[in-house]
Specification:
The chain contains 4 helices and no strands. By secondary structure, it is mostly helical. The chain is elongated and about 40 Å long. α2 (21-40) runs antiparallel to α4. This is YjiS-like domain-containing protein.
């Protein structure tokens, strides 16, 4: 499981180049904003993108450091 520090500073065992601290903070804040906006969508809009309100709520409640692996490189 990734911790907040792993996300912000990068793990030592990663082979991919590490992002700078500010880039990681900006990415984390963008993720937070995206999840908040997702939570604000109504059922009709969520249906357009194939999600339920339960899916959107679950995504919005995920911790900031719990991001898809592809976003961490």
């Amino acid at each position: 499981m990734m911790t907040l520090l792993d996300t912000l500073f990068g793990r030592f065992d990663q082979a991919a180049p590490r992002k700078g601290f500010l880039a990681r903070v900006n990415a984390a804040m963008a993720l937070r904003r995206s999840r908040a906006r997702l939570a604000e969508l109504d059922d009709h809009m969520l249906a357009d993108i194939g999600l339920t309100s339960r899916d959107a709520e679950a995504e919005a409640n995920r911790p900031i450091w719990d991001a898809p692996q592809t976003w961490k490189h």
